[in-house]
Every structure is written in structure tokens, then in C-alpha cells.
Amino acid sequence: MPTGSVPARSQAGWLRAATAAIDDADLRSDAEAALRALVWCLARWADWTRPLLSRPTWPVLMEHTNRRRSWLAGRLGWLRERGLLGTVEHGSTAATRAAPLAGLAGNRAAVYLLCTPAPPAELAPAAPPGCVRDDHRSLACGGELDPS
Fold first, then answer.
1. How many domains does the chain have?
2. Could you tell me if 111 and 145 lie in one domain?
3. pTM of the model
4. What's the pLDDT tens digit per position in 129-142?
């Protein structure tokens, strides 16, 4: 899972976060349309249970975006950089599969975890001058304890 992210709670929530990231990016209209198609395809292939795992093959993703593998690899990386996508399992063929999975037949699609950026941690209010906040969120001011 990307640092600073949490598993998406729903497909709709993930789509909102992913489309907001696309809206914030400065993309050409054709690149934006293809990226939106990629996001929708990942969401459509996601399990309905949590965590939301998506396992579309690269040929499926290329077909739905009308883009090549190199573009697809770059856009999946773009989603990872923004904390929207994690890789649970890399895709493999029988020839390239790691030893623990070597006995599995056929090709395996990559498995992606749909993520959303974690909400910012709630910060404790700053202590007034001359006061120190202890581990229990109480203030010690001039030797007195303020329970606020």
C-alpha cells in the first residue's frame, strides 16, 4: 500500500479520489480521457468486498484506454505516486513466476489494491506560551495542571 494511503472504503469513494486527482493534474484532453477510462476500468474490475482488489489484465486495460503498454505502465505509476493504487501481486507467466507460485498454471494478472489518501492526522492544539502538553493531552502551565 502506498505510504500515506488507506484501502478505499468503496468503489464510489475511490472513483471520487481518483477523478479529483485527474482534475487537479494539468493533462491534455486526450490523456485525461484515457486516464479516466483506466480509472473506470480498474473500478469496474474491483471486488465488491473490502479490501477493494482489482485484477484486470493489461490487454483489457489497453483495450479500454486505447493506449500501449508503456503508457499504461506510466499511468499505473502515476496512480501509485498519488496514493491511489497499490500492487498486491505483480502479473506473471509460468516462465517468470517466483518459486512459491511456480506450480500455478497459466498466466496471472496483476492484483491492484484501490487506495485513497489517508485523512490528515488530527493534531493537538498548540500549547499557550509557558505551557507544555504532556502525553495525556493535558497542559502543564507554571507547575499547575490544566485538564483542558
1. 2
2. no
3. 0.71
4. 655 555 444 444 45
